[in-house]
Amino acid sequence: MPPPTITHARYYMPPDPPTPERPLVMKARDMTPDLHLAPHEHPVGQVTYAPQGVVRVTANNSSWIVPPQRAIWIPPNIAHGVAALEDSRLRPLYVHASRSPFAGDECVLLEVSPLLRELIAALEQLGPEQHPQRELLLSNLILDELGRSATRPIRVPLPSDKRLKVLCDALIADPGAEQTLAAWATQVGASERTLVRLFEKELGLSFGQWRQQVRLAHAVPLIARGLPLSQVAEQLGYTSQSAFSAMFKKTFGRSPSTFFTA
Predict the structure, then answer these.
(1) Which domains, ranges and CATH numbers included, belong to the chain?
(2) pLDDT exceeds 80 at position 115
């Protein structure tokens, strides 16, 4: 059975949304893999961040996997959904539109620096309606640090065609699946030629290229948890650790063993 979906609007926004005078508000929320937040939008921006756990964010026809060392900026009025891939301490930051750290309507994946992590932890420790001057100071520092955060692309584009969506959803759920495109064609009710055309038209990638991006996106939280690279490679369907490491470095410019060290 699919996980239950939370649709109640009050679950998504804090009771006291950000204002020009109080530009940043946090709402603590713990999530388990047996539920997810349905696609929704709001007039304020959001930084989706979980200091513990791994979440998947969908927005702008794309999917991002976000481990604790990363966060994702979602601009105001952009529909997005959130699912926990494991027990997660979600600590979203809501940002007034006048203080958006990034321009435009694109989501931005962020590295969470040690300073940013500690600033967010300090903001959480203040509690509601306590020390407004210190809260404002921390908020301004967080917004400044967000704008300076380095980004790394771990974006997986998503299709709109229903047949292709069935295939893509299955591979996102099990990135190590080794079925060929011909095998998938039989399962989703489309010819292999049709799927080839749809991948190129809707996603701008071949089946192999898209599956590779999914696997690398899933690799990041596994590496972050300290899973041996040999096991990461095996889980994600690579023939060897060296093949996985070579593809990871080609994509991210750094080896898996050094990805989180800088």
Answers:
(1) 5-148 (2.60.120.280), 159-258 (1.10.10.60)
(2) yes
